[in-house]
Amino acid sequence: MTDLLWLWILLAVLLVGGLTTALVAGVRRRGAPDRDALPGDEPGDADGGLPGGGAASTDVLERPVDQAPPAARLDVPEPVAGRLVRLRGRLARSGSPLGARLLGVLSRDHLTEDDWDELEETLLVADIGAGPAGELIDALRTRVRVEGVREPGAVRQMLREELLGLIDPSLDRRLAATRVTRGDGVEVPAVMLVVGVNGTGKTTTVGKLARVLVAEDRSVLLGAADTFRAAAADQLQTWGSRVGVETVRSDKEGADPASVAFDAVRRGREGAVDVVLVDTAGRLQNKAGLMDELGKIRRVITKEAPLAEVLLVLDATTGQNGMNQARVFGEVAGVTGIVLTKLDGTARGGIVVAVQRELGVPVKLVGLGEGADDLAPFDPEGFVDGLLGDA
């Protein structure tokens, strides 16, 4: 009897133990947190508790801990051909007062001396310069007298031909943007030194030029050699980062510009990039100081690679006032090409002729607006047609 009692007690204990185990398991299944669960896997939260309501993904578990996050999306610069068409259209729509005035006078029945004086004054106001203005008036006088041109279409064509002749479409306006081989057989990047007075949009132009080159599938490296303005290096780095272009700079304000330029060119050679663009300080406190600084930069750069271009950035709206700047930089820097910024309005478009005559080098690029892709190679025919508009 005693044995039977103990047997019943044992069966009761086993039964209570089994019920307790089942009860605990049921509670865990209904929502009790598991000590081994991952953070964010709280029960009752169908999306895993991720911000924004996104479902928990195994990608988080499978991605290596040291894997970098996805890179920021880069800008895709507008193709150069497309922007040329757009900029030409903008010129044509601007209703150029220069072209309208010239055509208006030349279309009169009988041109008097006062009319010719008016034409010359219009050209001078447009910053074409006294010499080129006189040449154009003489050529127009001769053609009007010999050809007797009066019909509007013929007048426009005559003026177009003479203006185009002054701008000289035969000049080589191509950028030297191809890698070259040094005398020792080492291939090096095409190095472009960009100079100009602060306030002309020089640093912005360097950034836009980088976009032009990237649009042409060239690899680019930027050198922030304007070390006297920390904002200039920051600005240049921002422009470059948008299109995946690296910027070589110094963290020390007032560092040696020549040293930064040298580092940029060397980095470009080691990285086998196509073009190195070097931005320089635009201080014009005196000619001697400017000559010393730019001279040192040139000497240091050429230890690594020859200079392919020295581009002078000029603000087109400064007109003849900008010619003094052009003369100084032309003498000091050995300018090979001109970049005219802020050529939005064409009333003073004669500056193209004046600056080419003054420096003996072509306008290679023009900026026609504030957009990131509003810099384009200069097209003489498109520019003249824009000056004349639909008149």
UniProtKB/TrEMBL annotation:
EC nos: 3.6.5.4
Top-rank lineage group of the source organism: Bacteria
Organism expressing this protein natively: Paraoerskovia sediminicola
Ranges of biased composition (kind: Gly residues): 46-55
Compartment(s): Cell membrane; Cytoplasm
Protein biosynthesis found in the keyword field: no
Record keywords, A-Z: Cell membrane, Cytoplasm, GTP-binding, Hydrolase, Membrane, Nucleotide-binding, Receptor
Catalytic activity: GTP + H2O = GDP + phosphate + H(+)
Residue ranges of every copy of the SRP54-type proteins GTP-binding domain listed in the record: 362-375
Pfam families, alphabetized: SRP54 (PF00448), SRP54_N (PF02881)
EC class (word): hydrolase
The protein's role, per its UniProt record: Involved in targeting and insertion of nascent membrane proteins into the cytoplasmic membrane. Acts as a receptor for the complex formed by the signal recognition particle (SRP) and the ribosome-nascent chain (RNC).
Membrane topology: Peripheral membrane protein
Residue segments, region Disordered: 31-59
Membership in a protein family: Belongs to the GTP-binding SRP family. FtsY subfamily.
Subunit structure: Part of the signal recognition particle protein translocation system, which is composed of SRP and FtsY.
InterPro entries: AAA+_ATPase, P-loop_NTPase, Signal_recog_particl_SRP54_hlx, SR_rcpt_FtsY, SRP/SRP_N, SRP54_GTPase_dom, SRP54_N_sf
UniProt name for this protein: Signal recognition particle receptor FtsY
PANTHER family: SIGNAL RECOGNITION PARTICLE RECEPTOR SUBUNIT ALPHA (PTHR43134)
Binding residues for GTP: 196-203, 279-283, 341-344
Phylogenetic lineage: Bacteria, Bacillati, Actinomycetota, Actinomycetes, Micrococcales
